[in-house]
DNA sequence: TACTTACGATACAAAAAGTATCGAAATAGG
DNA sequence: CCTATTTCGATACTTTTTGTATCGTAAGTA
């Protein structure tokens, strides 16, 4: 972690210092309000005043915890989404685990969570801190997780040994982000299933 | 075209009606200024006042041509980008044409054009008119063009006959948009070349 | 009890999108 | 040439939103 980058959340000194402790309940209410507003209206209906009003909280309390709108959006997104997209821990084949996780990701991103993510990526194009927070705090860890499964699948002889894992991750996950941000077609399980199968088999004529 | 959707550009009646004709030179200057600002600073440095100042034009003139900030960004992008990404017209094999066009797209999107597109997609998450204009005025036509080549490659026996063209397009172009919007890695020709080859061959172990 | 910090509320400053108004300029038709 | 019409650039204005500052109060610690 580069300490020159602004933290996603401000540090909490409530236990070390004297004075009134910071209100964890208010923090939770803010996160929930932020995520709810993002889910309902995307980035359009998401403003600091609206979040404060919905959480029953002063605006200053929000800025005491998070430094900017983008940071708050990221925090709300993480709090709500992180539990939803974990890899299955079964003793399955790695390839099956990868496939099932991809279907799950497509399913989740097709719903409100996808709208929130699109909003964060949009905000990220405007504010470098937000996109950095998204990559470091969400995308990269997920990608690392996926790469591990991918390499396991290669080791177990389920996938070609000569693959570039980064490129394979892009081929599998890139189209999801694409359909999430550019409405060229639906993002559903049937589509995702076809995509996975297509990438698995390749598009070239099989050599007889 | 659904006429209920706001047009990307307002109609020009300067030749039919009386009065001072609309200034095409001013229009061109605005488009150029808009695109330059987007290339230089992305969505951050892109504002109507800034465009007007740079083009040496009143703000009202901009709004006389385009109804909103998003529409202007789209127009500037189209004017500058449309010539850059045409399909090669050679008598090559369809597959080679497709591959060369993908490499060209990756090359172009890796530069300033990619920053402009990212800005437009970001604005599009906020303003439905903008994303619609982008899809209808840019993404969809490109996609149609690519699909034609793709189907030619299938017809010519260069690709599997059982493919879903939409899914293949997502697999090839989706990762480009992904890397353009989420900085997980570089977007260069070497990467693109590996991606194309990976999708062609598939990632599963070849059946011996 | 004194001190310290966070709380909610609210006023405020700054920036930007889009609208309204103005006199000047350019064109068509008479 | 003259008048009506429309666009021109300039500028003031309204509205919205982000982020800061201020203030009296609440809730802890020493």
From TrEMBL, chains A, B:
Q: What is the name listed in the Swiss-Prot or TrEMBL entry for this protein?
A: Bacterial regulatory protein, tetR family
- Taxonomically, what lineage is the organism? Bacteria, Pseudomonadati, Pseudomonadota, Alphaproteobacteria, Acetobacterales
Keyword Ion transport in annotation: no
List keywords of the entry alphabetically: DNA-binding, Transcription, Transcription regulation
Q: Where is this region: Disordered?
A: 1-23
User: Pfam families from the entry?
Assistant: TetR_C_11, TetR_N
User: Where does this protein have compositionally biased stretches of type Basic and acidic residues?
Assistant: 9-23
What GO annotations for molecular function exist for this entry? Answer: DNA-binding transcription factor activity; transcription cis-regulatory region binding
Q: Which residues cross the membrane?
A: none
């Amino acid at each position: 972690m580069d300490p020159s980058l602004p933290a996603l959340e401000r540090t909490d000194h409530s236990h070390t210092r004297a004075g009134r402790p910071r209100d964890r309940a208010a923090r939770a209410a803010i996160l929930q309000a932020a995520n709810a507003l993002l889910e309902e209206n995307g980035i359009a209906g998401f403003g600091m005043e609206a979040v404060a009003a919905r959480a029953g909280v002063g605006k200053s309390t929000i800025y005491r915890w998070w430094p900017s709108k983008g940071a708050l959006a990221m925090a709300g997104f993480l709090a709500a989404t992180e539990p939803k997209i974990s890899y299955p821990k079964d003793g399955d084949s790695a390839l099956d685990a990868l496939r099932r996780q991809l279907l799950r990701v497509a399913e989740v991103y097709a719903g409100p969570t996808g709208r929130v993510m699109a909003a964060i990526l949009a905000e990220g194009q405007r504010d470098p801190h937000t996109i950095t927070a998204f990559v470091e705090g969400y995308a990269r860890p997920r990608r690392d997780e996926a790469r591990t499964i991918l390499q396991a699948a290669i080791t177990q002889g389920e996938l070609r040994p000569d693959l570039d894992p980064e490129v394979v991750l892009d081929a599998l996950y890139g189209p999801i982000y694409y359909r999430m941000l550019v409405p060229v077609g639906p993002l559903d399980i049937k589509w995702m299933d076809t995509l996975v199968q297509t990438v698995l088999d390749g598009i070239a004529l099989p050599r007889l």
